[in-house]
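We emphasize that the prediction below concerns an isolated chain of 373 residues; any contacts that depend on oligomerization or on bound cofactors are therefore not represented. The input was used exactly as deposited, without trimming of termini.
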Amino acid sequence: MHAGCGGGVDRYFDGLCRAFERSGVSYRGVVFGRGVADEAADLPAGTTILGSAEAPLHERWQLIRKAVSASGLQPSKALIASHFALYGWPVLSLRHRGVRLVSHFHGPWADESAAEGASRLAVLAKRLLERRVYHGSAKVISVSEAFRRLAISRYGLRPDRVAAVPAGIDAEAIGKRTAGVSRREARERLGWPPEPDRRIVFCVRRITRRMGLENLIDAVSALAGRHPELLVMIGGRGAILDELRARVARLGLENHVRLLGFVPDAELPLAYRAADFTVVPSVALEGFGLVILESWAAGTPVLVTPVGGMPEVVSPFAPECVLGGSSVAALVQGIGAVMAGDLVLPGAAGCEDHVRRAHAWETVARRLLLAYG
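Result of the prediction step, given as a C-alpha cell string:
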C-alpha cells in the first residue's frame, strides 16, 4: 500500500512488487494515482490504483479499509505493509480483527515537512500520527541502520520491533536500457552537449530544501573558473525550483548548471549513462539514496555526502566516494578532486557488478518477507 506520490519511494514500491512477481509471491498492491497519466501507467501486475490522491482524506481512508475487507484473506492471516504512515492509519482500526500492520519507514514525514517550512500545527499533527501508526505496527522496516536508529529515537520504539533492510534494484532492467550505449550517444539522445571535453555531473532529486542543491550550485560557482568544462545537470521538480533558477542566473552559471525539470523514469538510465559521475548532495534526512543504485546500474559512479544511510550504501564498495561533509567546501573539494584527476572513481564494470551482487531485488524481497514475520 503506497501513496503514489512520485520519486524514489515510488520506484522502491514498484521494484519490490515486481520482485515479488518474479519470485512467485502472492500479493496485492494498491496505490493512489494523480490523474490520467497514472491510470495508463505500467503498473506491476498485482498492483491497482485504489483512487485519486486528490480525493478527500476520509474517502481515501475508507477506500483502504474497504480494500482490506475485500481482499478475501482471513483477518488473522492478513498482513498489510504500508509505505506511508498516513495510509497506515486506517488499518489500525482493523487490528481487533487480527489484521497485522507492518510499516515501512522511508523517512520522518513530520521532520521533512518542518524542513520545508510547514506550520507548527501541521508538523505536530503529522508527528502524532506517525508515532501512533508506528507504535501500532507489528514491525517497522527502515531502509538503513541510520534510519533504524532514527525511528527508535524519534518515536520511542522498542529496538527489537525495528529492522533495517537495504533497498534493492532491478539492475538488469536498467542495464538493458543502456547496453551498448556510449556516453556520447546517451548525451546525443538526451540533447545534452556531446563534446567529450565537457565533464557532465548528474544530480536527480526532489527540488526541496534538504537536498543540498543550493550548496551544489554554490560549489559549481567556486569551481567554474578553474574548470570551465564542468556542467551540472539537475533533474527533478519541487518547491524551490524557481529559487534555484534565480540562483543560477544571479551567479552567471547558465553555461555550468542546467535545471532539467522532471526527468521521466524511462529516461533516467540514459541520464545516468550520459554523465561522467553522479552527485547526491543531501544535507539532512537521507535514508538510503536509491539514485546511488540506479546510477551504479547504469555504470556511472556516485559521490555522496555523509548523510543518513548513504555512507552505509557507498562505503563497502567505494569509501573514497563519501565526501568529508555536506557543506559547499566539502562539495568543492570532492568534485574538484575528480575534475583535477586527484580522485579516481570506480569504472563502469565495477559499478555494475557491485550493484548486481549486493542489491538484487530478489535478495531484498526475501529479507523483507523474513522481517515481516
